[in-house]
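Sequence only, no structure available. Ideas?
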Amino acid sequence: MKLGILFSGGKDSAYAAYLAKKYNHELTCLITIVSENKDSFMFHTPSIDKTILQAKLMDIPIIIQKTKGEKEIELDDLEKAIVSAVKKYHIEGVVTGAVASVYQASRIQMICDNLKLECFNPLWQKNQIELLEELIKNKFEVIIMQVAAHPLDKNWLGKTIDKSFIEKIKTLNEKYKINPAGEGGEFETLVLNCPLFKEPLKLKNKVITGSGNSWKMEVELE
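Reply:
I predicted one. Tokens follow.
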């Protein structure tokens, strides 16, 4: 089946794309929503511009749709992007990286239903520690780009999701209820390499800003 991937450049959308291909579907295009609202209810915003580089490494065309990010209204822009993917690339379904957000999953499902498209959520309700372990097993190189929860601080920026990370996040989950996969917005990620890429992305420069338990890292890639 020809599928469009709702793609943010983070771990969940990239892993969902990987699983869709593993299930023998055709990754026909990526669909990226660029929101002006950094606190969008629907869309990942950190390093969203890097999806263009990632698309080149995946050799998959990408549709970029801008939105002001107004709650619920931003769904119209998502639908426009999906309609564009149907017209241009003849997609038959949409893949999401939704893990636990009923808000996101239900709204994407509604759009797909309206357009008579299949909606695939390969990560839905997956155990989040197992999800992190699968990323490592399948050779995903994922770094932390943003944190927004106590007791996370700037020292977490740039960390790779590895076995050490998993052990630390388990402890924080037990003590502070930090969501292991960052589903509550505790942290955001960027994929530097995975089996879908022809070669890895490399960090060139980085700028860190923030305070307290809210920090973000902007990077240049090569």
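The mean pLDDT is 95.
Hope that gets you unstuck.
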